[in-house]
Structures are given as structure tokens and as C-alpha cells.
Amino acid sequence: MSYFLLFLSAFGAATLLPLQSEAVLMTLLVQGMSNPFYLLLVATVGNVLGSCVNWWLGLKIEHYKDKKWFPVSEPRLQQAQQIYHKYGFYSLLLSWVPIIGDPITLIAGLMKEHFGRFLLIVTIAKAGRYLFMYGLYLGLFS
């Protein structure tokens, strides 16, 4: 059950939902009842899959940008596209960062970033974040 809870929190945290998977991961690590390797794997897979949902939404979102209910103004959408165009797929290395990471993955889909490259870079970024969290748990940075 703990792996499923971690997966859901990691998946949701990677979407535009305001969830935190780090707290769930750290709690499960402290409890010591789950294998740390599997916890890191489940958190990474869940978080990457959530980012893939954002990428897919980004692919489809352009069809709705002229609708009244669309939540982002045309100038803000263009600004985001310009920033992504300037930094390109390297900006996906920041996909793990709270607040800005989720929109970056959405814009990557909007900019029609190649899915294989997207998946590789986002997986590196997300796994790196969870490995860092594990390092904090182990006390490697104190």
C-alpha cells in the first residue's frame, strides 16, 4: 500500500495538482518498512509519468487557446514558448523544481519536443531529485 500511495503522490505532484511527493517519500524512508530502492523507483516512475501527462496536454492545448475559458493569455503563452525556445530541451533539467517544473513539461509538449528526448531528460532530472532526497535521509550532505 505504501508504494501505491507514493506512486499516486509522485504522479499527482508532477501534474499541475499541488501535491508533495517528497514528504511521502521521506516518511516512508524514516519508517524503514519499505525497500529504499523500490521507493526511489516508484517515486521516479510516478513523477515521470505525471510529467508525460503534462507533455501530452501541451500537445493538445494549442487547439483550445482561442477559447474564452482558456486559463492562459496569448501573451503569457507566447512568453513561455519564447523562453523554451531560447533554452530548449535543456530547460527540462529543471522539471524537478517546484512551481516551474510542471509548466516546463507542459510547454515542452506545446513546443512538440521529441518524446524520447523529453522522457530521457525528465527521467534524469526526476531521479536526480529523489536520489538527492535519499542522500539527505542518509545524512550525506550534513
UniProtKB/TrEMBL annotation:
GO terms for cellular component: plasma membrane. Residues 25-133 form the VTT domain. The chain crosses the membrane at residues 37-57, 87-111, 117-140. The keyword Membrane applies. The keyword Transmembrane helix applies. Pfam families: VTT_dom. Keywords: Membrane, Transmembrane, Transmembrane helix. This is VTT domain-containing protein. It comes from Acinetobacter haemolyticus CIP 64.3 = MTCC 9819.
